[in-house]
Amino acid sequence: MSTAPEKFVWTAENEKAAQAHIAKYPEGRQQSAVMPLLDMAQRQNGGHVTQEIMQYIADYLDMPAIRVQEVATFYTMYNHKPIGKHHVQVCGTTPCWLRGSDDIMSACKKKLGIEKGQTTEDGMFTLSEVECAGACVNAPVVAIDDDYFEDLTPETMAELLEKLAKGEDVKAGPQIDRQTSAPFGGPTTLKGDKGEDA
User: Fold this and answer.
1) CATH fold of 86-174, please?
2) What's the pTM value of the predicted model, to 2 decimals?
3) Which of 66, 79, 172, 194 could form a disulfide with 147 if both were Cys (CB 3.0 to 4.6 A apart)?
């Protein structure tokens, strides 16, 4: 699935973007751009980074290759093998787990016919379990590609996967009738007409 040339180099567009990222940091601190450069390289390479790409970024930023590898292997946002068209990442951290992430993972496995860490035969979906997605208040949360899907049930998860498999658009965000992170039932404070509690 990789679209990388035999030897990885930035596309002309990504070269400009890489320089723009580096320019955000003070002189001598270009290594601070390692995360956005890894992300950009991963996207250019069809969804994963390789040892060659990590070395390229290390050379590009004039930093030890081991430092790039430390970043790339610490964060689950960097993939080290090819992934499917849609990367389904189920948060398994405590708040999501308490709100049913095990059931969400089971629904994904059943619907896709794969286990964690696998990709469907058609290359459409890769299923992963990740640590905190940072949207605990709307647990359980699943990141699919660059979008978060929150307040999921096994049924809504299966529906999302079905729509994606058909190439249909899906609505990111809360999957229930909730405005942002408001509690169930809506806001509970500052409801009076003069700003006092009702």
Assistant:
1) Glutaredoxin (3.40.30)
2) 0.80
3) 172
